Amino acid sequence: MTPYLDRFRLTGRTALVTGGARGIGFATCEALAQAGARVILTDRDEAAAQDAAESIKGQGHDVVADRLEVTSSAEVHALADRHPEVDILVNNAGIARSNIPAERMTDDEWLSVVDINLNGLYWCCRSFGGRMLDRQAGTIVNVGSMSGFIVNRPQEQAQYNASKAAVHQLTRSLAAEWAPRGVRVNAVAPTYIETAMNSYVYEDENLMRHWIGGTPQGRMGRPDEVAAVILFLASDAASLMTGSIVLADGGYTCW
Ligand code: NDP
C-alpha cells in the first residue's frame, strides 16, 4: 500500500490548468508544481501566462506557459494534440457578469458567460479526456461554484449560476461514463474568493457585509485554499472519488 503522504505527490505527472495566469488558476499551478507535477500553465493572454509561469519557475519548479482560449474548440483540440501526455486537467477558466436582472439580460451577457464557463470547459474535457481514455488513466478537476447550488443574494447572475450548476452535472455525467475506463472527474465548488473577479465588491460595503455576514467562518476564501482542494482531488489521495462536487465554502451553504 502506498504510504499516505506519497499519495499526494505528483512526481512524473503532467498537469494542465486553464485560466492559470492569476487568481485560483495561478494558485493551483503553484500547488501542483510544488507537489512535483510538470505544469502547463495556460491562459487566453499569452504574455500574462508567460509571466505567471516564470514566477513559479523562479521558485525552482517545472512550469511552461501556453496560450489557450477555451471557447475555441479548434484551439483546445490542437493543444491536446501537442500535449497528449497530460495526466491532470484543471478546468479553471471562467468569468462572471453580475447585477444583470434576468429579464433584461442581453444575448451577449448570457452567451459570453455560458460559452466560457460551460462550453469551453466541455471542449477541454472532450479533447484532453479523450486522450486520457486512450491511456486508461488521468483525472480532471472542474472549478464549479457554490452558485451551482444556491442563488447568492443580492446579485443577479442567472447565467453564471446556471453555468456552474451545469458544470456540476457535466462533472457527474463524465465521471459515470469514464470511471470504468480509468479516468476520474471531480469538481470543487468554492465560496467567494479574494480574486480579481470580485474586485468590484470591495467598494461595496453592503455586499461585503452580506457575504461575510452570511458565511459561518466570517470571511472570504483565499485562492490557495481552493488550490489545496484541487491538489487533493487531482492526487491519488482521492483515488476513490469521482463525480464528487466538493464544497469549499466556509460553511456558507449551511445557513
Ligand atoms: P480571475 O478572474 O481572477 O481569473 C480567471 C482567469 O481565467 C484570468 O486569467 C482570465 O483571463 C482567464 N480566462 C477567462 N476567460 C478565459 C477564456 N475564455 N480562456 C482562457 N482563459 C480565460 O477568476 P478567479 O480566479 O476568481 O476564478 C477562477 C474560477 O473559479 C472561475 O471558473 C470562477 O467561476 C470560479 N469561482 C470563483 C469564485 C470567486 O469568488 N472568485 C467563486 C467560485 C468559483 P483574463 O484576464 O483575460 O480575463
UniProtKB/TrEMBL annotation:
This protein's UniProt keywords: Oxidoreductase
Known EC number: 1.1.1.47
One GO biological process term: carbohydrate metabolic process
Domain of life: Bacteria
The Ketoreductase domain, residue ranges: 13-191
Pfam families named in the record: adh_short_C2
SMART domains listed in its UniProt record: PKS_KR
Top-level EC class as recorded in UniProt: oxidoreductase
GO molecular function, one term: glucose 1-dehydrogenase [NAD(P)+] activity
NCBIfam families: PRK07231.1 (NF005559)
Family named by the database record: Belongs to the short-chain dehydrogenases/reductases (SDR) family.
Name of the molecule in the record: Glucose 1-dehydrogenase
Organism: Rubellimicrobium roseum
